Amino acid sequence: MGRPEIFGGELYGVIRRAIVIGNGFAGSENQSIGLVRALGLSNHQSLYRVTRPRGGIHERLHWLPVSLHKKLDYVMKQFQITVRGKTVMPLSAEKNGFSDTLEADAKHIAKMAHESFEKDGPLLVVASGRDTISVASHIKQLAPEYVFVVQIQHPRSGLKRFDLVITPRHDYYPLTPHGQKQIPWFLRRWITPRELPDRHVVLTVGALHQVDSSVLRSAASAWHTELASLPRPLLVVNIGGPARSCQYGMDLVKKLSVLLQNVLWSCGSLRISFSRRTPEKASKIVLRELGGHSKVYIWNGEEPNPHMGHLAWADAFVITADSVSMLSEACSTGKPVYIIGAEHCKWKFADFHKSLLERGVVRPFTGKENMSESWSYSPLNDTAVAASRVHDALAERGWKVQP
To answer: Fewer CB within 10 Å, N- or C-terminus of the chain?
Structure first.
C-alpha cells in the first residue's frame, strides 16, 4: 500500500495524501483546499500555516518577506521598544492565533515525505499566497523525489521551483503594454512577472474554490428548511469592502442600497451578506436603508454562515467588484451574476472584470433589472480544469492520485 504499482505496464507512484500550506487568509486557503477536494483527497489532507507576527506595528510590515519579518520580530522580542518617548513591550509577544494549526516548517515536511514514502507513497503539497512561496519551494528543493508541489497564485519568478503553478490570467496583466504603462519603472522588477507562462503554468479565469455540483447539492439539502420556502426569485447580495485596487467609499454603498430598492418589486426575497472586510459604516447604511423591508433578510454575521446555502438556492446574485473569490464562486453556478463597483477598480482587478464581461458571465448592476428574467452562460470551472492539469502533470512523472 502506497508503494509504486503497475498499471498497464507502466510504473506509477500513487498519491493518497496531501498537505495544504496556508497563510491564515480564507481566500487563499480556500483555493488550495478546493483543489485538494477536486482531486479527491479532502479526507486525507493536513493543514499547515505560515504565520506572521500580528498586532500593532506588525500590521504595517506585511510587505516584508515573511522570513525577514520573523527575524525582525525575534529582535524586537529581545529589547523593549521606544515609541514617541514611551517604552512599550514588543507587540509580537501577543498571541499570533492559529495555535491549533501546525506551523509550516519546510525541513519537517520534507523529512516526513522522505521517511513515509515507502509506506505511504509520494506527498502532494499545495500552497497558495505570497507568504507560502518560500516554504513550498524549499520543500521541493529538499525532497524533489518524494513530493509534487503545486503553487497557487503567481510567484513572479522562479517558476521551476515548483512542479506546477496555477494562477489567474490577470496575474500576467503587468506584462501587457497597458499594464506596463501603469507601473513606475523603479517598481517593475518587484511587480512584473519575470517569466512568461510555460507548459507547467495553468492559467485560470478566476480563483479556485470548493464550490461544485456535489457541494451545492449538499448545501441545498442542509439549507432546505430555511431557504426552500422563500418567495421567488431569490436575489442574494454579497457585499465586500474596499481593497487596495478597488477603492470605494460609502457613496457606492448608498448607491447599491438605492439600486436594490429599485429592483425589489421584481424579487420574491432579498438576502444580504457582508464579508469580514465590510466596514461597519457600510453595513449600518444597508441596515438603515433596507433592514425594515419585509422582503429583505440581512445576515448578522453569526454562525451558521449561509454562504453555501445562498449559492445553492439563489436565483441571481449582486456582488461588489472587490472580491475575486466571491465572483468566482457565483460564476461557477451558471446563475445570473451582477457586479457593482467595477469602475472603482484598477490594475489586475479591472482586467479580471473585463474578462468576465467578455465571457458573458457577469453584467453590470444598474437597478433597472427584472430579477424574474434569467439569463445563462457557460459556468466557470477553473478548479476542475486545474485538477485535470494536475492529473496530467502527475502522469508525465509516472504518478497518479488514488484516494
So the answer is: N
